[in-house]
Write a structure and sequence with these properties.
286 residues; alpha/beta; TIM Barrel; two-stranded antiparallel sheet; binds SN-glycerol-3-phosphate; binds calcium ion
Amino acid sequence: MASAHRPLVIGHRGAPGYLPEHSLESYRLALRQGVDALETDVVMTKDGVMVLRHENELTRTTDVASRPEFAQRRTTKVVSGKKWTGWFTEDFTFPELLSLGAPTESQPIITLDTLLLLVADESQRRGRRVGLHVEVKHPTYFASIGLPITEVLLQTLADHGVDAWNSLPGLPTQRVWLQSFDEAWVREMSTRTDLPLVQLIDKKWGAVDCAEIATYAQAIGPKKSMVRKKGQPPTGLADEAHRHGLKVFVWTLKAGRDQADRLFEAGVDGVFADYPNRPIAALADI
Ligand code: G3P
Ligand code: CA
């Protein structure tokens, strides 16, 4: 059972196949390439600012390890069940984060506020909404250390009038979505907001109970191989999700049009893509 609408192409962290992930320029490039929506990850700083990063640990994309003034902040923590050693956003103020450079290219860390302004501007320019998928990283962990990530998120979205965005013209899937791998948090959000929710799913889930997920979320976000592996027929997960009224957004496309074609044929409602122009080109020929 295919999706009833043209699937969305969602710029995953911007267009990180071309420009550094989560940077303003990367998001702008994804928009220029014609994405329907953007995806971002949010974490918190010590002073309560919601910044766009995949990990709260800073080493991979900044020069923090070579900054002597921050040497004492290196530490080991367990975050969402995984042990990390390094430097963490929650131990830095936002101005301190801005003082960090990136190891290769200088691309400042940006906030959710900045991305919401970009999406609003682009929606106005296009005359229809641009979708946004906000993935909250480690919400239970941040709450446990006294950083109210859920409250800051909801307040930030309210400040930008995001509820009203979802009634602008556009595809039914082209909306502001909240998403997480943290099942307890997605369940909690179903009681705290009317925004649509994506339950992200990786292979650690085992069997996916779409009937149960449909009681608290509006979509699933599985790893792409859970929907269809190369050289194989669809697994049936997309059809099962659709039977329960759930949309299906898969992560993460990095390859060329064969990969996109394979997933579109399996009936997904959207793809998170590192090279957004590739699935966009594949869709142009459907
Ligand atoms: O949006 C889904 C996808 O981004 C989840 O994986 O690790 O890239 O955040 P990750
Ligand atoms: Ca993500």
